Structure formats: structure tokens, C-alpha cells
Amino acid sequence: MELERPDEEPGSADDRITAPYDPSKIEIQTLNPTINLLISRLINGMIDLAPDFQRKAGIWSDEQQSRLIESLLLRIPIPSFYASELTDSSWAQDSSWAIVDGIQRLTAIARFIAPEALAESGIDSGPLKLRGLEYLKDDFEGKGYNDLSGRMQIRLNESQVVVHLIRPGTPEEVKFNIFARINTGGLPLTRQEIRHALIPGPARKLLSSLAESPEFASATGHGVYSERMADREMVLRYLAFRLADPSRFRSQDFDQFLARTMRQVNRLTDDEREDHAQDFRRAMATAEEIFEGHAFRKQFPGQTRRSPVNKAIFETVSVNLAALSEPRRAALVRSREQVVEGFQQLMTDRNFERAVSVGTGDRAKVVGRFAKVHELFSTVLQNNGSSSQ
Questions:
Q1: Which residues does 304 contact at the CB level (< 8 Å), separation at least 6?
Q2: Is there a single domain that holds both residue 160 and residue 208?
Q3: Comparing C-alpha atoms, which of 258, 318, 311 is closest to residue 285?
Q4: Mind listing the pLDDT tens digit for each residue in 241-267?
Q5: From CA 32, how far away is CA 14, in angstroms rounded?
Q6: Bridge partners of 48?
Q7: Same domain, yes or no, for 345 and 248?
Q8: What is the pLDDT of residue 100?
């Protein structure tokens, strides 16, 4: 089951700048560090490789990693790296870099030269032995870094690469726009991948934990894939409207709204993050009990076919459920037939249907759909004498 892809929210187009900005504030510095310097920064915790990326699709094979090392040994230039300079002192040291494009290349280099540097970043893949070489097979096939002559080790360490570093003064929206245009192996970065790379901190772990939770997987019928971090974006959308009153939603740029939420989650205490995690799991369980296999999906009267998971319905239903007390959630479950019937009727409302299908980040549509689902739940509870619980 695929995730339904509604028409884009305001501010989500890859090449769109939605507000005026001062070009003089855009600062992109091109550096030519040596491989040795990059390894040193890794060892000292001054490069963030966003290790969660390493578990997603597109991981390089040993052969691909080996051919990159072969290119360096042959002094063939390799593609540029793109990084953002981190400034949040709570989660990063001064002048730390978040690698946005080039994670696989830097991982391959570090794995061959200094695998201990990867261990410091939470990546434990073991030393790389060269395999599948094209031009240096006779001399280097099967060898590790320590098997190279001193001259070849020096050649590797003194090799220079190109790093395009986005400096802190660059406007946030422009920074996201720059990275959204980067083509990584023919596949542009998703907005959530960019947020993940640029915003380190506890929010990463919370999104990962909830996206991998059995409650989320079961409620969505395993319909939200982890590739490209689609599942984490769903969790983030929930948190965004749980932390910000939907009735007061004002954002003109949905991407920046989600980015601000990640930073807000970073500022929460451990106990507050755990409270939100528990609320999320309860909301997932309740949604599944009420809607069963149609949770977070469009469902019209008489429809038996299961639709894809819908982002806007997911955030609207889950946040409204999380806001209820346990007795009121239980009362909705007991009255699930009325809830399902009411939701099916709601889907026949042209305004609501459009609010979960087209321009879903528009302020009026956000406010409208949250209010409609809140009204549905309140009406069912009132009709069953549970409105005061």
C-alpha cells in the first residue's frame, strides 16, 4: 500500500522561494580540504554523518566503495561534497559540519582509512578491503589500508576534495532550497532527508523511534515506507500540530513549519518527549480500534476498497485523538460504528475532501479539517453521554 501524495503544500516545491530575502546574506564557501582533514574532523566529532541515513536504501556495496578509493589512488577527481555549518551549540561543536550530499562517499573513505572514525559516529561496518577494482586489481585487490605502501597511504591522505559549505548566515529557506536541488545519485533529497541532515539532536531519535513503533506500523497497515524517511515525516507532522494549536495555524511555508517543529522537539525535556511518544502510541492504537484497516485513509459511504494512507487525514485524526482523555478515547471505540459512519459522511463534504487532497498546508484548509474532525468526535461523545469525561 502506497502513501497517497496530495497536491503539494505551500512552500514545498523544490525550486520555490516563498518570501523575499537579502542575497548578500547567502554565503557559500568552497573549500579544498585533504582527506586527512576530513578524517580528523570525523574522529573529533566535528562532522555529522547523520548515521540513520546509513540504514536506508542506496547503501553502497563494497565494490562501489572500493571503486571510489581506486579513483583517489588514481588521482581521479571525485564529486563535490555539500555541507551545512552547524551553529546550535546545544548539539554541535563550533564549526561542525552536517554532510547533506556525500555521506556515502565520506563513509567509504573513512571505512577504508580509519574505520574507528565511523564508530565514533555510530556506524560500525568494519574495515573495508578493496574488491571489484577495474584498473588496480593486480596491485590492490583484497588489500586494506594498512596493506598499502607508505607512499600510497600519503597519496590518499593528501588527496584534496571539494566541499561546498553553506554558512550559518544563509537564510533557512534558501538553505533548504539549495539542498533540495542537489541530485544524489540521480535521486533528489526529500525535504525530510534535508531536515534530518540539517537539524541534529534528540528529535532525530524520537522520530525514528515512533516511526519504527509497532503501533504506527499496525495502524497504517504498513502503508508508509521508511525509504526516503516518509514515515518520519508523518510522525513529524503529528508532532507539529500536537505542539502548535491547529486553530491558530498561520504558517505560509509548511516545510519551515516542520523544520521549526524539529527544533522545538530538541528543546523539550526528556520527560516531555516521552509524554508525546506515549500520546502518539495511544492515538495510533485508538485509530486502529475505531477505523480498523481504513485508519488514516479516505473512506466514502459504501466503500470497501482500502485507499492509501493520507497525510492530512493522518495528522488530523491522530492529533484529535491524542488530545482526548483515556475515558473519552475508550468511549469513541465503543461507538466506533457512529464514528466511522460520521467520517464517511464527512468525506462527502466537498470542502473537507479538498482540505485533505489539494493544497493541504493552506491555513484555511488546516483549520477547517481539524475543526471538522474535532466536531465529529465531540458529537459522537455527546450523543453517548461521554462529553464530560
A1: none
A2: no
A3: 318
A4: 999 999 999 887 888 899 999 999 999
A5: 28
A6: 98
A7: yes
A8: 84
